[in-house]
Amino acid sequence: MYLIKLGGSVITEKAKRYTFRTKVMDHLARELKKASQDMIIVHGAGSFGHILAKEHDLDKGYKQDTQRFGFAKTQAKVQQLNNLVLDALHNYNIVAVSLPPHSTVTFNNHAIKYIDYTLFERYLEEEFTPVTFGDVVLDDSRGFSICSGDVLMQALATHFKPEKVMFVIDEDGLYTANPKLDKKATLVTSLTTQELTTLSTAADTHADVTKGMGGKLSVIKTIANQGIDTMLVNGNKPERIYRLLVGEEAKHTLIHGGKT
Ligand code: IP8
Asked: In angstroms, how far is the first alpha carbon of the chain from the final one?
């Protein structure tokens, strides 16, 4: 089974509120169908979640009453994005079903307290493709929290031990330096978890309440420590995802699973 995260900066235009990248999502759905693998899909919130979450300080938990409206609005907007993702998958007959974190996950002190894994298992048994996403959730000590798609990836990888984990991002993979600032930065095609720490990450210039690439790397480290390989691949480049899913060559970064 493959665990795949479709990054928010791939499926939306991150700087512009509520802009879904229909064409990109269409080609991602086509490739996922063509590769025909069992999978769980997680997607980021992109400009449907991060801008609102930042405006309402939702990453800080409950501080004042007006945030409750921001929470409700963010929940509705990420659900809307999820429906667009589902539509794209359904167009290619992928039997995708939505498992929204706001009704299947709870947090305590900004960390996952409970996930309804049984629901994921049941849908997988019935040969559905579960789709979950970055969302806002209830938090026992903070009132509410942001539940990022990356944190869900870590939890789902730990529970399901997928054959491969794939992060679909808007770069070709990891670089020796920040490729947005340094022209000499080169792509790292393969590395161990120890080597991860030596890389600097691309600065995210858009609203991002879930630590951007830095947060992703710490999640990947935890996944790799459990012996699971992780691939980072550019979702804007046609065929790469398909080729990697069927075991063919394509440009990407591979982080080898293995204890640090
Ligand atoms: O885009 C963030 O999820 P991510 C969720 O996977 C919200 O980091 C609501 C901003």
From this structure: 24
What's the gap between Cα 200 and its chain centre?
A: 20
CA 103/CA 72 separation, integer angstroms: 13
**Annotation: CATH topology of 2-255:** Carbamate kinase (3.40.1160)
Q: Which two tokens stand for residue 120?
A: 């994921």
Q: Name the 3-class secondary structure at 47.
A: helix
Whole-number Å distance between alpha carbons of 38 and 28? 15
Distance of CA 245 to the CA centre of its chain: 17
Q: What single-letter amino acid sits at 111?
A: A
pLDDT one-digit tens code per residue, 103-129: 999 999 999 999 999 999 999 999 999
What are the structural domain ranges in the chain?
2-255
Choose which residue among 9, 55, 135 to substitute to test ligand 1 binding: the one with the highest number of ligand atoms within 8 A of its C-beta: 135
Query: Which protein residue has the closest C-alpha to ligand 1 atom 8?
Result: 148
pLDDT in tens, 31-41: 999 999 999 99
The rounded Å distance from CA 153 to ligand 1 centre is: 12
Distances (CA, A) of 93 to 32, 33, 57, 80, 89: 11, 8, 38, 20, 7
